[in-house]
Amino acid sequence: MAFAPIPGPETLLYGEREHRGRWFERWTKNPAAPGCKVARSDVTIADIGESLNIRRNPGTPGSHLDDEVAHQMAQLHLEGPWVCHSMNSGYTFTEEGDVSTENLNEWKSYILPSALFISSTFRASGPYVSQIAQAMYQSENRIDTLKHVFFLDVINEDTAEFVLDNIFAEDRRPDGSRVEYCFFPGQSKFHALLGTKLGSVVASLVLGAYPRGTRHVTQIVVHREAQRCFCLQFDIDTIPASPPPPYSALPGSKHKRPRGADGNESDDGGEPPRKRRKSANPNRNYDPSYQGPARRTRGQAAASKIVKLPLRPRKPTEGAP
What we know:
Elements lengths: L14 H15 L15 H5 L5 E3 L8 H11 L6 E7 L2 E2 L5 E2 L4 E8 L2 E8 L6 H10 L9 E4 L5 H12 L10 E5 L4 H7 L2 H13 L5 E12 L2 E10 L54 H12 L17
Parallel strand pairs: 6-7
Antiparallel strand pairs: 1-2, 2-5, 3-4, 5-6, 7-10, 8-9, 9-10
Helix pairs in contact: 1-6, 1-7, 4-7
């Protein structure tokens, strides 16, 4: 199967991010698309727990996230119970007393049926973030029930840079207003968001959790909370099966085209029946003795069946002279 080439980053409005997002969209939608290096993931929460201490607790997000999460729950009609997973390792501090992320592995997420809220993630080693996300959700629910992935209070540098420079900068509304920006497949900003660091996590999650060509990201929403704070929402859904092609009789086929309710042949995309071309001059080459092909053929056939037999001498009859 031949695929149309994806334009190079230098020709796209959002460069490398948009280029990467276009590839992710193609890989998730078409299993035959070449170049995908994301394999199906079989990492489990038990595998992660061998090297990291995972804490599992029932409970809702912390107070600083209550408003944000409550807003999403109300919009999507999500219900509990909540489950929280957290883990960390490699904590070190800089000379200024700040936490160093050089060797830091940290994760904190909240899970509802159909939704995964990620509030903190740093990875220096071990499984990929997409594999951790899949393992955490799969430990509580079937992976085919996952519909929404949220990143709360985003501080990832690559993702935040794109959102602030290319989405918020184009909006003239006050910084304190709550705004939602929705993007869909085929749009440049959708591809660029899918190609950011956090977008790549969700795209890799879809590629690692499901057979290619069965599920994809259908919408990306940027929720602007206050000033420069925002969260990201990625919606995941099944890819609808392609409808069968409309009926069309093959050239030379003896099958008639289906008829509609009015008894006429339906317009189903097939070729219309060919009509016999009428002669421009109906009296041209007219032969009054011509009796039609069928009658002439019957006459010839009947004549060909007549067989002449030789005459035999008649026997004399008794009493005859």
